[in-house]
Design a protein that fits this description.
The chain is an alpha/beta fold and about 350 residues long. Helices cover about 45% and strands about 20% of the residues. The strands form 2 sheets. Strands 2-1-3-4-5-11 form a 6-stranded parallel sheet, sandwiched between helices. Strands 7-6-8-9-10-12 form a 6-stranded mixed sheet, sandwiched between helices. Helix 4 links the parallel strand 3 and strand 4. The longest helix has about 35 residues. About 45% of the residues are buried. The N terminus is likely disordered.
Length: about 350
């Protein structure tokens, strides 16, 4: 073989090798692209029928029932969806068992409002490992959205409470005074975020002093007992921030029991629930100074479920923050009945 022929042979071998390498790289790239574009669930499409399990923290709370109602209404607009709601009854063991049942049933998607963060983290991980998307509503387990669970939908608890703190500092007590905080269940993320948010908000007024803070676990009777004790220790409290509307109602009863007149203590709630026992009516009728709506996220959760199950989405926003609204004497009456 002449030197020229040898060179041509070497070039052909090299070309064949490069071609093989290029083909392999292209195959890898296509595989990677396919992986990136793979749906979040294997069985999806507009013609399917899907079961969505919702693990609710505690149906006994009015806010939780409000969430259930909005979820049910939103899911009812989607013929392909069947929504199953399990009541965790304020017990992490009950809620864990119900979540495991959803996994065993092989539901298509799970929604959860965890009663407590840490104890329910393992069962969320088990659902994710089973290939079931998990959307967390209002409350979070430990870990990161998009990794340890599919997504979080809810209001910004810190900012909602911070807004309440600013309202006290700027509008209710511009001259300063003593204030108190009734915290929710300390092992739940909203309770911690709302406590810290309110304390951050009132710092805008250096003449305001937070003289008492007590966990009342979201319950009106515990809030009544706790606030009664606060008023005995600090009879000059001018405002109390309750981390939900139920505790605000309990605080009002305690204030009345202590001989306080309506308006002597500015009461602020969180939830802004409609109806005769809700915070909107309480503000409209002058019983409370304000409440702050905490949106359920129900419609947004069903919209995300549609993206995953009907549209075969390969990704969804990992955090969806739904807007809130301050309910004050300026707008409360206009909100009645809405």
């Amino acid at each position: 073989m002449t030197p020229a022929a040898q060179q041509q042979a070497r070039e052909k071998v090299m070309g064949d090798r490069l071609s093989a390498i290029s083909t392999s790289l292209l195959a890898l790239a296509l595989a990677a692209g396919a992986a990136q574009g793979a749906p979040l669930v294997k069985d999806c499409g507009k013609d399917g029928k899907y079961v969505i399990g919702f693990s609710q923290a505690n149906n006994a709370e009015p806010y939780r029932q409000h969430v259930n109602d909005e979820l049910t209404a939103a899911a009812g607009q989607v013929p392909q969806f069947t929504l199953q709601i399990a009541d965790g009854a304020g017990n992490v063991n009950t809620q864990t068992s119900q979540m495991d049942n959803f996994v065993t049933q092989k539901v298509d998607l799970i929604l959860i409002s965890p009663f407590e963060a840490a104890p329910l983290t393992p069962v969320v991980a088990r659902a994710m490992k089973a290939g079931i998307p998990v959307i967390e509503l209002d409350r979070k387990t430990l870990g990161d959205p998009g990794k340890d669970y599919t997504a979080f939908i809810g209001g910004d608890n810190f900012k909602i409470a911070e807004e309440a703190g600013h309202y006290v500092a700027d509008k209710l007590l511009p001259q300063g005074g003593e204030v108190a905080v009734l915290e929710g269940l300390p092992s739940s993320t909203p309770a911690v975020e709302r406590l810290n948010g309110f304390k951050a908000g009132v710092k805008a007024n250096t003449k305001i002093e937070v003289v008492a803070e007590q966990a009342a676990d979201w319950l009106p009777d515990k809030a009544q007992t706790a606030f009664a004790a606060m008023l005995q220790a600090h009879p000059n409290i001018k405002a109390v921030y309750a981390s939900n509307d139920m505790m605000a109602a309990g605080a009002r009863l305690a204030a009345k029991g202590a001989g306080k007149k309506e308006g002597d203590i500015k009461i602020l709630g969180t939830d802004g629930l409609p109806g005769p026992s809700g915070g909107i009516r309480a503000v409209a009728e002058g019983e409370w100074a304000a409440t702050f709506t905490y949106p359920t996220g129900g419609p947004q959760a069903i919209d995300m479920a549609k993206s995953i199950l009907l549209d075969c989405a390969d990704k969804v926003p990992t955090v969806v923050t739904v807007p809130t609204m301050a309910i004050t004497p300026d707008n409360a009456k206009g909100m009645m009945g809405k």
